[in-house]
Amino acid sequence: MLKNTLLYTGKAKSVYTTDNPDLLILVFRDDASAFNGEKIAQLDRKGKVNNLFNAFIMEKLAEAGIETHFEKLINPSEVLVKRLDMIPVECVIRNYAAGSLCRRLGVEEGKVLTPPTFELFFKDDALGDPMVNESQSIALGWATAEQLEQMKVLTYKVNQVLTDLFEKGGMLLVDFKLEFGVFHDRIVLGDEFSPDGCRLWDKETKKKLDKDRFRQGLGDVVEAYEEVATRLGINLDSI
Ligand code: TMP
């Protein structure tokens, strides 16, 4: 597959067109950013670890019947994906309170959320990805009611599959963010699932094993991502 022109440079990935209009190549870089780009760094190996991590998760989700944009790994930094028409609304599920929920509502970190909460955020860097609701998303033309319903059902299904998967590795899936797009009229999971876009804690010690290590300056960021990967049985020998 030929990598053609650079279509878009995100905070951690670059997107290239290919000779097939239905397919794109994503390149996972070592860039880390937090607080809407205020804190940035280069973290050696992060791009490759996240690419291999994401490929493993996307395959598990596909096995569970969730359609994703993942096609195949090209090399440790690059993946071939379907070209989706992205919906600019991010879906977040929380199983335990953390991050912006604690700041917004004054809740103690780690409080169990029963049932898990579902939130929407408008994907807009200039606005700092504000929280939005369903009626705003529909009225502003970002998604239809049917699309939002499908995204919600799929996000809860992902939560079930991945909560079980991380539990087997001795971890709690605290929260995570998903992005969806449209591919030939179907809602398909896009972007990536990696420790950059979720919170994972060790079940016993509650040690943070995700991007909060970078946000909070806890150190050993990529080492923690590698620990999560190893616990899931992901082979990182190639990188
Ligand atoms: P939050 O606590 O900052 O709202 O984030 C909730 C979860 O969603 C956390 O795992 C980080 C992830 N997330 C992103 O990765 N990118 C985003 O733009 C948003 C809003 C959340």
Q: How would you describe what is shown here?
A:
The protein has 239 residues and is α+β, with helices and mostly antiparallel strands. The protein has two domains: 3-82, Phosphorylase Kinase, domain 1 (2-Layer Sandwich); 85-224, 2-Layer Sandwich (D-amino Acid Aminotransferase, Chain A, domain 1), CATH 3.30.470.20. Helix content is 30%, strand content 36%. The chain is built from six helices and 13 strands. The strands form three sheets. Strands 8, 9, 10, 11, 12 and 13 form a six-stranded antiparallel beta sheet that branches. Strands 1-2-3-7-6 form a five-stranded antiparallel beta sheet. It is globular. The chain starts with a strand and ends in a 7-residue tail after the last helix. It binds thymidine-5'-phosphate.
Give me the number of helical elements.
Answer: 6
Query: Which structural class do you get from the secondary structure elements?
Result: alpha+beta
The top level CATH class name of the largest domain: Alpha Beta
CATH topology of the largest domain: D-amino Acid Aminotransferase, Chain A, domain 1
- Biggest β-sheet description: 6 strands, antiparallel
Percent of residues in beta strands? 35-45%
Into which percent range does the helicity of residues fall? 25-40%
**Span between termini:** 22 Å
Ligand inventory reads: thymidine-5'-phosphate
